[in-house]
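Practice problem: predict the structure.
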Amino acid sequence: MKKIVFAAVAASLFAFASCSSSKNVNQEENAVETAVEQAAESVEETAEAAAEAVEEAAETAESGLGWEK
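Answer:
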């Protein structure tokens, strides 16, 4: 009888540990996904700012050379 109780307790502890470990993995995956999304947004914002700066520089150069449309 003690072996059966011990086996049941061991199985429940193993199941609990596996579930807890799975939750930690999901949390880590969510954290990584969030960080990647934030990095992508930052890159996109930087690219947009650079594109705007290039457009402004081109407009300034055109107006300075008399190439206005």
